[in-house]
Protein backbone atom coordinates (compact mmCIF):
# COMPACT_ATOMS: atom_id res chain seq x y z
CA UNK A 1 0.00 0.00 0.00
CA UNK A 2 1.68 3.21 -1.17
CA UNK A 3 -0.58 5.69 0.59
CA UNK A 4 -0.63 5.54 4.38
CA UNK A 5 -4.15 5.51 5.83
CA UNK A 6 -5.05 8.62 7.78
CA UNK A 7 -6.19 7.94 11.32
CA UNK A 8 -7.92 10.39 13.70
CA UNK A 9 -5.95 13.14 15.40
CA UNK A 10 -4.22 11.89 18.52
CA UNK A 11 -4.22 8.26 17.30
CA UNK A 12 -1.48 6.23 18.98
CA UNK A 13 0.84 3.97 17.00
CA UNK A 14 2.65 1.34 19.01
CA UNK A 15 4.27 -2.06 19.19
CA UNK A 16 4.10 -5.06 21.51
CA UNK A 17 6.51 -7.32 23.36
CA UNK A 18 5.90 -9.73 26.22
CA UNK A 19 8.37 -10.57 28.95
CA UNK A 20 8.46 -14.32 28.46
CA UNK A 21 8.82 -14.10 24.69
CA UNK A 22 11.74 -11.68 24.60
CA UNK A 23 13.49 -11.25 27.95
CA UNK A 24 15.32 -14.55 28.37
CA UNK A 25 17.43 -14.55 31.55
CA UNK A 26 14.96 -16.95 33.15
CA UNK A 27 17.26 -17.77 36.09
CA UNK A 28 18.71 -14.29 36.60
CA UNK A 29 18.26 -11.88 39.54
CA UNK A 30 15.96 -14.10 41.55
CA UNK A 31 13.31 -14.84 38.94
CA UNK A 32 11.26 -17.91 39.82
CA UNK A 33 9.99 -20.56 37.39
CA UNK A 34 6.75 -20.02 35.49
CA UNK A 35 4.29 -22.54 34.08
CA UNK A 36 5.93 -22.09 30.67
CA UNK A 37 9.37 -23.01 31.99
CA UNK A 38 7.86 -26.23 33.29
CA UNK A 39 5.75 -26.88 30.21
CA UNK A 40 8.65 -26.38 27.80
CA UNK A 41 10.65 -29.08 29.59
CA UNK A 42 7.91 -31.65 28.94
CA UNK A 43 8.87 -33.72 25.85
CA UNK A 44 6.83 -32.98 22.76
CA UNK A 45 5.13 -29.81 23.97
CA UNK A 46 7.21 -27.29 21.99
CA UNK A 47 7.28 -28.01 18.27
CA UNK A 48 10.97 -27.26 17.76
CA UNK A 49 12.06 -28.54 21.18
CA UNK A 50 13.27 -25.09 22.26
CA UNK A 51 12.70 -23.04 25.39
CA UNK A 52 12.74 -19.32 26.19
CA UNK A 53 15.88 -19.44 28.31
CA UNK A 54 17.57 -16.90 26.04
CA UNK A 55 14.78 -15.68 23.73
CA UNK A 56 15.92 -12.23 22.51
CA UNK A 57 17.92 -11.51 25.68
CA UNK A 58 15.98 -8.28 26.03
CA UNK A 59 16.47 -8.39 29.78
CA UNK A 60 20.03 -7.28 29.08
CA UNK A 61 19.62 -5.69 25.65
CA UNK A 62 16.55 -3.52 26.29
CA UNK A 63 18.44 -0.23 25.62
CA UNK A 64 19.04 -1.48 22.08
CA UNK A 65 15.36 -2.38 21.71
CA UNK A 66 14.19 0.99 23.00
CA UNK A 67 16.52 2.70 20.53
CA UNK A 68 14.74 0.76 17.80
CA UNK A 69 11.37 1.96 19.12
CA UNK A 70 12.62 5.53 19.04
CA UNK A 71 13.87 5.09 15.47
CA UNK A 72 10.49 3.61 14.52
CA UNK A 73 8.72 6.71 15.80
CA UNK A 74 6.03 4.96 17.85
CA UNK A 75 4.32 6.94 20.57
CA UNK A 76 3.36 3.87 22.60
CA UNK A 77 4.73 0.45 23.49
CA UNK A 78 2.87 -2.38 25.20
CA UNK A 79 5.11 -4.65 27.24
CA UNK A 80 4.52 -7.04 30.12
CA UNK A 81 5.91 -7.21 33.61
CA UNK A 82 7.15 -10.72 34.48
CA UNK A 83 5.21 -11.85 37.53
CA UNK A 84 7.83 -14.53 38.41
CA UNK A 85 10.52 -11.82 38.50
CA UNK A 86 8.59 -9.72 40.99
CA UNK A 87 7.36 -12.62 43.12
CA UNK A 88 9.26 -15.86 42.44
CA UNK A 89 6.58 -17.87 44.26
CA UNK A 90 3.65 -15.64 43.27
CA UNK A 91 3.37 -14.14 46.75
CA UNK A 92 5.27 -11.89 49.13
CA UNK A 93 7.12 -8.60 48.70
CA UNK A 94 8.43 -7.46 45.34
CA UNK A 95 11.91 -8.64 44.41
CA UNK A 96 14.13 -5.50 44.59
CA UNK A 97 16.19 -6.59 41.60
CA UNK A 98 13.04 -6.85 39.47
CA UNK A 99 11.91 -3.43 40.67
CA UNK A 100 15.29 -1.96 39.77
CA UNK A 101 15.21 -3.55 36.31
CA UNK A 102 11.76 -2.24 35.42
CA UNK A 103 12.60 1.15 36.91
CA UNK A 104 15.42 1.45 34.40
CA UNK A 105 13.28 0.07 31.58
CA UNK A 106 10.42 2.54 32.15
CA UNK A 107 12.76 5.49 32.57
CA UNK A 108 14.40 4.61 29.25
CA UNK A 109 11.02 4.36 27.49
CA UNK A 110 9.90 7.72 28.82
CA UNK A 111 13.21 9.37 27.97
CA UNK A 112 12.68 8.14 24.40
CA UNK A 113 9.25 9.81 24.32
CA UNK A 114 7.34 6.51 24.34
CA UNK A 115 4.24 6.03 26.49
CA UNK A 116 4.27 2.62 28.24
CA UNK A 117 1.24 0.32 28.36
CA UNK A 118 1.91 -2.38 30.95
CA UNK A 119 0.38 -5.85 30.96
CA UNK A 120 0.49 -7.49 34.37
CA UNK A 121 -0.13 -11.07 33.23
CA UNK A 122 0.96 -12.36 29.84
CA UNK A 123 0.73 -16.15 30.34
CA UNK A 124 3.61 -16.48 32.84
CA UNK A 125 1.93 -17.74 36.01
CA UNK A 126 4.48 -18.51 38.75
CA UNK A 127 4.82 -22.29 38.93
CA UNK A 128 4.33 -22.27 42.70
CA UNK A 129 0.78 -21.00 42.20
CA UNK A 130 0.09 -23.66 39.58
CA UNK A 131 1.30 -26.26 42.06
CA UNK A 132 -1.48 -25.03 44.36
CA UNK A 133 -4.14 -25.37 41.66
CA UNK A 134 -3.34 -22.45 39.35
CA UNK A 135 -6.33 -20.64 37.91
CA UNK A 136 -8.69 -23.29 39.30
CA UNK A 137 -7.82 -22.08 42.79
CA UNK A 138 -9.59 -18.90 43.94
CA UNK A 139 -6.53 -18.10 46.04
CA UNK A 140 -4.74 -17.25 42.79
CA UNK A 141 -7.20 -14.35 42.39
CA UNK A 142 -6.10 -12.95 45.74
CA UNK A 143 -2.43 -13.41 44.87
CA UNK A 144 -2.88 -11.63 41.56
CA UNK A 145 -4.77 -8.71 43.11
CA UNK A 146 -2.01 -8.27 45.69
CA UNK A 147 0.65 -8.38 42.97
CA UNK A 148 -1.29 -5.82 40.91
CA UNK A 149 -1.57 -3.45 43.85
CA UNK A 150 2.14 -3.66 44.71
CA UNK A 151 3.26 -3.11 41.11
CA UNK A 152 0.70 -0.32 40.65
CA UNK A 153 1.94 1.52 43.71
CA UNK A 154 5.51 1.31 42.43
CA UNK A 155 4.96 2.31 38.79
CA UNK A 156 1.68 4.24 38.51
CA UNK A 157 3.64 7.46 38.17
CA UNK A 158 5.28 6.30 34.93
CA UNK A 159 2.94 3.81 33.26
CA UNK A 160 0.13 5.65 31.49
CA UNK A 161 -2.08 2.66 30.59
CA UNK A 162 -2.56 -0.78 32.14
CA UNK A 163 -3.91 -4.17 31.07
CA UNK A 164 -4.41 -6.65 33.92
CA UNK A 165 -4.61 -9.94 31.99
CA UNK A 166 -3.67 -10.72 28.39
CA UNK A 167 -6.25 -12.81 26.50
CA UNK A 168 -7.98 -14.79 29.27
CA UNK A 169 -9.85 -16.71 26.57
CA UNK A 170 -6.63 -17.88 24.90
CA UNK A 171 -4.87 -18.66 28.17
CA UNK A 172 -7.84 -20.65 29.48
CA UNK A 173 -8.92 -22.57 26.40
CA UNK A 174 -5.43 -23.43 25.13
CA UNK A 175 -3.87 -23.95 28.55
CA UNK A 176 -6.71 -25.66 30.38
CA UNK A 177 -9.05 -26.78 27.57
CA UNK A 178 -6.89 -28.21 24.79
CA UNK A 179 -3.59 -28.51 26.64
CA UNK A 180 -1.50 -27.10 23.80
CA UNK A 181 -0.34 -24.24 26.06
CA UNK A 182 0.95 -24.23 29.60
CA UNK A 183 0.00 -25.69 31.99
CA UNK A 184 -1.15 -28.37 29.53
CA UNK A 185 -4.46 -29.52 30.99
CA UNK A 186 -6.95 -31.10 28.55
CA UNK A 187 -10.37 -30.40 30.06
CA UNK A 188 -12.31 -28.99 27.06
CA UNK A 189 -15.31 -27.14 28.53
CA UNK A 190 -13.85 -27.75 31.98
CA UNK A 191 -11.56 -24.81 31.24
CA UNK A 192 -14.39 -22.32 31.85
CA UNK A 193 -13.93 -22.25 35.67
CA UNK A 194 -10.26 -21.32 35.17
CA UNK A 195 -11.31 -18.58 32.77
CA UNK A 196 -13.90 -17.34 35.26
CA UNK A 197 -11.18 -16.96 37.87
CA UNK A 198 -9.01 -15.05 35.38
CA UNK A 199 -11.90 -12.69 34.68
CA UNK A 200 -12.48 -12.11 38.39
CA UNK A 201 -8.73 -11.56 38.79
CA UNK A 202 -8.87 -8.96 36.02
CA UNK A 203 -11.57 -7.10 37.96
CA UNK A 204 -9.79 -7.39 41.29
CA UNK A 205 -6.57 -6.14 39.72
CA UNK A 206 -8.39 -3.17 38.19
CA UNK A 207 -9.72 -2.26 41.64
CA UNK A 208 -6.25 -2.59 43.18
CA UNK A 209 -4.64 -0.52 40.39
CA UNK A 210 -7.12 2.33 40.80
CA UNK A 211 -6.52 2.30 44.55
CA UNK A 212 -2.81 2.67 43.73
CA UNK A 213 -3.48 5.79 41.63
CA UNK A 214 -3.76 4.30 38.15
CA UNK A 215 -6.21 6.23 35.95
CA UNK A 216 -6.29 4.35 32.62
CA UNK A 217 -7.13 0.64 32.60
CA UNK A 218 -8.24 -1.53 29.70
CA UNK A 219 -8.11 -5.11 28.50
CA UNK A 220 -6.42 -7.02 25.68
CA UNK A 221 -8.77 -9.78 24.59
CA UNK A 222 -8.41 -12.04 21.57
CA UNK A 223 -11.37 -11.68 19.20
CA UNK A 224 -12.22 -13.31 15.89
CA UNK A 225 -15.24 -13.10 13.60
CA UNK A 226 -16.87 -16.52 13.44
CA UNK A 227 -18.16 -17.57 10.03
CA UNK A 228 -20.29 -20.72 9.61
CA UNK A 229 -18.89 -23.34 7.29
CA UNK A 230 -22.24 -23.54 5.48
CA UNK A 231 -25.87 -22.51 5.79
CA UNK A 232 -26.70 -25.86 7.37
CA UNK A 233 -28.45 -25.18 10.72
CA UNK A 234 -25.97 -27.47 12.46
CA UNK A 235 -23.03 -25.37 11.23
CA UNK A 236 -24.80 -22.13 12.13
CA UNK A 237 -25.56 -23.44 15.60
CA UNK A 238 -21.98 -24.61 16.16
CA UNK A 239 -20.72 -21.21 15.04
CA UNK A 240 -22.99 -19.40 17.50
CA UNK A 241 -21.79 -21.65 20.32
CA UNK A 242 -18.11 -21.13 19.57
CA UNK A 243 -18.65 -17.39 19.11
CA UNK A 244 -20.21 -17.27 22.59
CA UNK A 245 -17.30 -19.24 24.05
CA UNK A 246 -14.50 -17.27 22.42
CA UNK A 247 -15.94 -13.78 22.02
CA UNK A 248 -19.02 -13.61 24.22
CA UNK A 249 -17.51 -14.89 27.45
CA UNK A 250 -15.14 -11.93 27.72
CA UNK A 251 -17.29 -9.29 26.02
CA UNK A 252 -20.49 -9.89 27.96
CA UNK A 253 -18.88 -10.40 31.34
CA UNK A 254 -16.57 -7.37 31.14
CA UNK A 255 -19.09 -5.01 29.51
CA UNK A 256 -22.48 -6.22 30.73
CA UNK A 257 -21.71 -8.16 33.89
CA UNK A 258 -23.34 -11.37 32.69
CA UNK A 259 -22.49 -14.62 30.96
CA UNK A 260 -23.96 -15.69 27.62
CA UNK A 261 -27.11 -17.44 28.79
CA UNK A 262 -26.20 -20.90 27.47
CA UNK A 263 -22.72 -20.84 29.03
CA UNK A 264 -23.36 -19.65 32.58
CA UNK A 265 -23.89 -23.22 33.87
CA UNK A 266 -20.26 -23.97 32.99
CA UNK A 267 -19.06 -21.39 35.53
CA UNK A 268 -21.72 -21.73 38.23
CA UNK A 269 -19.81 -24.28 40.28
CA UNK A 270 -17.06 -21.72 41.02
CA UNK A 271 -19.07 -18.49 40.87
CA UNK A 272 -19.76 -16.66 44.13
CA UNK A 273 -21.93 -13.63 44.86
CA UNK A 274 -20.35 -10.45 43.57
CA UNK A 275 -18.10 -12.08 40.95
CA UNK A 276 -19.92 -10.63 37.94
CA UNK A 277 -19.91 -7.14 39.45
CA UNK A 278 -16.19 -7.51 40.10
CA UNK A 279 -15.52 -8.58 36.51
CA UNK A 280 -17.51 -5.63 35.18
CA UNK A 281 -15.07 -2.95 36.25
CA UNK A 282 -15.12 0.30 34.27
CA UNK A 283 -12.74 0.14 31.31
CA UNK A 284 -11.12 3.20 29.80
CA UNK A 285 -10.44 1.33 26.56
CA UNK A 286 -11.40 -2.05 25.14
CA UNK A 287 -8.31 -3.75 23.73
CA UNK A 288 -8.67 -6.09 20.76
CA UNK A 289 -5.96 -8.58 19.83
CA UNK A 290 -6.82 -9.54 16.26
CA UNK A 291 -5.34 -11.96 13.76
CA UNK A 292 -7.94 -13.59 11.48
CA UNK A 293 -11.52 -14.85 11.18
CA UNK A 294 -12.43 -18.42 12.06
CA UNK A 295 -14.59 -20.78 10.01
CA UNK A 296 -16.70 -23.10 12.17
CA UNK A 297 -18.63 -26.29 11.36
CA UNK A 298 -20.52 -28.80 13.45
CA UNK A 299 -18.74 -32.00 14.31
CA UNK A 300 -20.27 -34.91 12.35
CA UNK A 301 -22.74 -36.92 14.37
CA UNK A 302 -20.68 -40.10 14.03
CA UNK A 303 -17.50 -38.37 15.23
CA UNK A 304 -15.83 -39.37 18.50
CA UNK A 305 -14.44 -35.86 18.98
CA UNK A 306 -15.05 -34.27 22.39
CA UNK A 307 -15.92 -30.86 20.96
CA UNK A 308 -19.16 -30.15 19.06
CA UNK A 309 -17.40 -27.97 16.49
CA UNK A 310 -14.45 -28.13 14.13
CA UNK A 311 -12.54 -25.55 12.14
CA UNK A 312 -12.25 -26.22 8.41
CA UNK A 313 -9.89 -23.99 6.43
CA UNK A 314 -11.15 -20.68 5.11
CA UNK A 315 -10.37 -21.05 1.43
CA UNK A 316 -9.76 -18.35 -1.16
CA UNK A 317 -7.43 -16.14 0.88
CA UNK A 318 -3.66 -15.92 1.22
CA UNK A 319 -2.29 -17.39 4.44
CA UNK A 320 0.53 -16.50 6.80
CA UNK A 321 3.30 -18.89 7.78
CA UNK A 322 1.15 -19.85 10.77
CA UNK A 323 -1.63 -20.85 8.38
CA UNK A 324 -3.90 -17.92 9.21
CA UNK A 325 -6.12 -16.59 6.41
CA UNK A 326 -5.40 -12.93 5.64
CA UNK A 327 -8.76 -11.13 5.61
CA UNK A 328 -8.29 -7.49 6.69
CA UNK A 329 -11.93 -6.58 6.01
CA UNK A 330 -12.93 -8.97 8.80
CA UNK A 331 -11.37 -6.62 11.35
CA UNK A 332 -13.48 -3.73 10.09
CA UNK A 333 -16.53 -6.01 10.19
CA UNK A 334 -15.85 -7.06 13.76
CA UNK A 335 -15.31 -3.50 15.01
CA UNK A 336 -18.47 -2.17 13.37
CA UNK A 337 -20.71 -5.04 14.48
CA UNK A 338 -19.38 -5.04 18.04
CA UNK A 339 -19.87 -1.30 18.37
CA UNK A 340 -23.45 -1.66 17.09
CA UNK A 341 -24.14 -4.49 19.52
CA UNK A 342 -22.77 -2.98 22.74
CA UNK A 343 -23.14 0.75 22.08
CA UNK A 344 -22.95 2.77 25.32
CA UNK A 345 -21.48 -0.17 27.26
CA UNK A 346 -18.38 -0.14 25.06
CA UNK A 347 -15.48 2.24 25.73
CA UNK A 348 -13.16 3.35 22.91
CA UNK A 349 -11.32 0.56 21.12
CA UNK A 350 -7.57 0.10 20.96
CA UNK A 351 -6.08 -2.55 18.69
CA UNK A 352 -3.73 -3.88 21.34
CA UNK A 353 -2.10 -6.49 19.08
CA UNK A 354 -2.17 -7.21 15.34
CA UNK A 355 0.48 -8.98 13.36
CA UNK A 356 1.43 -12.06 11.39
CA UNK A 357 4.22 -14.59 11.00
CA UNK A 358 6.45 -14.61 7.91
CA UNK A 359 9.86 -16.26 8.08
CA UNK A 360 12.03 -14.09 5.86
CA UNK A 361 15.78 -13.93 6.48
CA UNK A 362 18.12 -11.09 5.54
CA UNK A 363 18.98 -11.27 1.85
CA UNK A 364 22.35 -10.90 0.18
CA UNK A 365 21.91 -7.15 0.52
CA UNK A 366 21.37 -7.52 4.29
CA UNK A 367 17.74 -6.43 3.99
CA UNK A 368 14.75 -8.45 5.19
CA UNK A 369 12.26 -8.10 2.33
CA UNK A 370 9.08 -9.10 4.19
CA UNK A 371 6.60 -7.61 1.75
CA UNK A 372 3.85 -10.02 2.79
CA UNK A 373 3.96 -8.59 6.33
CA UNK A 374 3.68 -5.07 4.92
CA UNK A 375 0.60 -6.11 2.95
CA UNK A 376 -0.90 -7.74 6.04
CA UNK A 377 -0.34 -4.73 8.31
CA UNK A 378 -1.34 -2.21 5.65
CA UNK A 379 -4.60 -4.02 5.00
CA UNK A 380 -5.51 -4.22 8.68
CA UNK A 381 -4.53 -0.64 9.40
CA UNK A 382 -6.70 0.50 6.47
CA UNK A 383 -9.54 -1.58 7.95
CA UNK A 384 -9.12 0.34 11.21
CA UNK A 385 -9.11 3.64 9.34
CA UNK A 386 -12.27 2.64 7.47
CA UNK A 387 -13.99 1.68 10.74
CA UNK A 388 -13.05 5.10 12.13
CA UNK A 389 -14.54 6.81 9.07
CA UNK A 390 -17.74 4.86 9.75
CA UNK A 391 -17.97 6.23 13.27
CA UNK A 392 -16.17 3.59 15.35
CA UNK A 393 -13.99 5.16 18.07
CA UNK A 394 -10.55 3.53 17.77
CA UNK A 395 -7.74 5.28 19.65
CA UNK A 396 -4.65 3.23 18.84
CA UNK A 397 -2.98 0.39 16.95
CA UNK A 398 -0.14 -1.76 18.30
CA UNK A 399 1.81 -4.07 15.98
CA UNK A 400 2.60 -7.48 17.45
CA UNK A 401 5.49 -7.79 17.65
CA UNK A 402 8.53 -5.54 17.72
CA UNK A 403 10.94 -8.50 17.78
CA UNK A 404 11.06 -12.07 16.52
CA UNK A 405 10.57 -13.78 19.87
CA UNK A 406 9.78 -17.18 21.33
CA UNK A 407 6.27 -18.07 20.17
CA UNK A 408 4.84 -20.35 22.85
CA UNK A 409 4.16 -23.91 21.63
CA UNK A 410 5.70 -22.99 18.25
CA UNK A 411 9.05 -22.17 19.84
CA UNK A 412 11.18 -20.28 17.32
CA UNK A 413 9.34 -21.63 14.29
CA UNK A 414 7.30 -18.46 13.72
CA UNK A 415 8.58 -14.90 13.23
CA UNK A 416 6.17 -12.05 13.99
CA UNK A 417 8.62 -9.20 14.46
CA UNK A 418 9.22 -5.95 12.67
CA UNK A 419 12.83 -6.65 13.65
CA UNK A 420 14.65 -9.85 12.67
CA UNK A 421 16.55 -11.45 15.56
CA UNK A 422 19.41 -13.81 14.72
CA UNK A 423 18.94 -16.91 16.88
CA UNK A 424 22.67 -17.47 17.38
CA UNK A 425 23.91 -13.94 18.00
CA UNK A 426 20.82 -11.93 18.94
CA UNK A 427 21.66 -9.38 16.27
CA UNK A 428 18.70 -7.10 15.50
CA UNK A 429 17.96 -6.26 11.85
CA UNK A 430 14.98 -3.99 11.14
CA UNK A 431 12.89 -5.43 8.32
CA UNK A 432 11.32 -3.62 5.39
CA UNK A 433 8.06 -3.74 7.40
CA UNK A 434 9.83 -1.75 10.13
CA UNK A 435 10.71 0.99 7.65
CA UNK A 436 7.18 0.89 6.20
CA UNK A 437 5.59 1.30 9.64
CA UNK A 438 7.96 4.16 10.43
CA UNK A 439 6.80 5.82 7.23
CA UNK A 440 3.13 5.34 8.12
CA UNK A 441 3.68 6.97 11.51
CA UNK A 442 5.64 9.86 10.04
CA UNK A 443 2.98 10.45 7.38
CA UNK A 444 0.16 11.05 9.85
CA UNK A 445 -0.88 14.69 9.72
CA UNK A 446 -1.43 15.17 13.43
CA UNK A 447 0.30 16.47 16.54
CA UNK A 448 2.10 14.25 19.04
CA UNK A 449 -0.27 11.66 20.50
CA UNK A 450 -1.64 12.34 23.98
CA UNK A 451 -0.19 10.56 27.01
CA UNK A 452 -3.32 8.51 27.71
CA UNK A 453 -5.81 6.55 25.65
CA UNK A 454 -8.90 7.54 27.64
The helix/strand class is alpha/beta
How far apart are the first and last residues' alpha carbons, in Å?
A: 30 Å
Q: What is the CATH class name?
A: Alpha Beta
Question: Architecture in CATH?
Answer: Alpha-Beta Barrel
**Oligomer status:** single chain
The total tally of domains equals: 1
Strand order of the largest sheet: 4-3-2-1-11-10-7-5
Structure characterization notes:
The strands form three sheets. The chain has an eight-stranded parallel β-sheet with strand order 4-3-2-1-11-10-7-5. The chain has 15 helices and 13 strands. 53% of the residues are buried. It has 454 residues and is an alpha/beta fold. The protein has one domain: Alpha-Beta Barrel (TIM Barrel).
Write out key terms for the chains shown.
13% strand; single chain; 454 residues; 39% helix; TIM Barrel; 8-stranded parallel sheet
Write the layout of secondary structure elements.
Elements: E1 12-16, H1 19-22, H2 35-40, H3 58-72, E2 76-80, H4 83-86, H5 96-111, E3 115-121, H6 127-131, H7 139-155, E4 161-165, H8 168-178, H9 192-211, E5 221-223, E6 226-228, H10 233-256, H11 264-267, H12 275-279, E7 286-290, E8 294-298, E9 309-310, H13 329-342, E10 349-354, H14 371-389, E11 394-400, E12 419-421, E13 428-430, H15 432-443
Parallel strand pairs: 1-2, 1-11, 2-3, 3-4, 5-7, 6-8, 7-10, 10-11
Antiparallel strand pairs: 8-9, 12-13
Could you write a compact summary of the structure shown?
By secondary structure, this protein is of the alpha/beta class. Helices cover 39% and strands 13% of the residues.
Amino acid sequence: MDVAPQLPEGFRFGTVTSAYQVEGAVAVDGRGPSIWDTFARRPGTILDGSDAGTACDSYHRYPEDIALLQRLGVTGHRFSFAWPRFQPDGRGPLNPKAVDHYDRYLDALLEAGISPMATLYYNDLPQALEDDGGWFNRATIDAFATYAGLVGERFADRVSSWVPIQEPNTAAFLGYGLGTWAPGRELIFGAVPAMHHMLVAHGRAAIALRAAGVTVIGCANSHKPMWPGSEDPADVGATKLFDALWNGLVLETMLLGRYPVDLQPLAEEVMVDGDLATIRQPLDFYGVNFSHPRRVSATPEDSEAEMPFEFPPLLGYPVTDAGWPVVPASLREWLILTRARFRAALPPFVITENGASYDVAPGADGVVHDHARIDYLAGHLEAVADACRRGVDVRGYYVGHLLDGWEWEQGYRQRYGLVHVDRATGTRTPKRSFEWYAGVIAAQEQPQAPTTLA
